[in-house]
Design a protein that fits this description.
Number of strands: 6
Helix content: 40-55%
Shape: globular
Largest sheet: 6 strands, mixed
Number of helices: 5
Strand content: 15-25%
Structural class: alpha/beta
Order of helices and strands: EHHEEEEEHHH
Radius of gyration: 14 Å
Amino acid sequence: MKITEFLSEALIIPALRGGNKGEILRELAGKLASVDPAIDAERLVRVLEEREKLGSTAIGDGIAIPHGKLPGIRGVRGVFGRHPDGVDFESLDGAPTRLFFLLVAPEDSAGTHLKALARVSRLLKDAVFRRRLLEAADQKALYQLICEQDEKL
């Protein structure tokens, strides 16, 4: 599975504005809903918040991968967002979170959902790549970097 199968340039947010976990989840979900009419932003936010109650999806190193399953959608969908200053996302390492990769999958897609999570985790594992994401100029540059790194995996 390639990241380009579920992420497009239109689904990149170069400068998230939210100041807390709830605002970031709403911003990411709103972006996805704006390009996919099958997704209701509020419903997606509720799914993501329920997942966060199980434990933060902020895995450390400035990364969070909020995710969930939503009935009625076709295939895995993703949104990438970058926060210029970072926010408290209850990260495992206590550090501010700056890189967010939202994933949503159909309700009956356990295998695909896990493959997408694994792919994103591998992508963001590289510290040099994370630094390049933080330094990228704009939406287009961010998408190009993600595509290039995805090809190397």
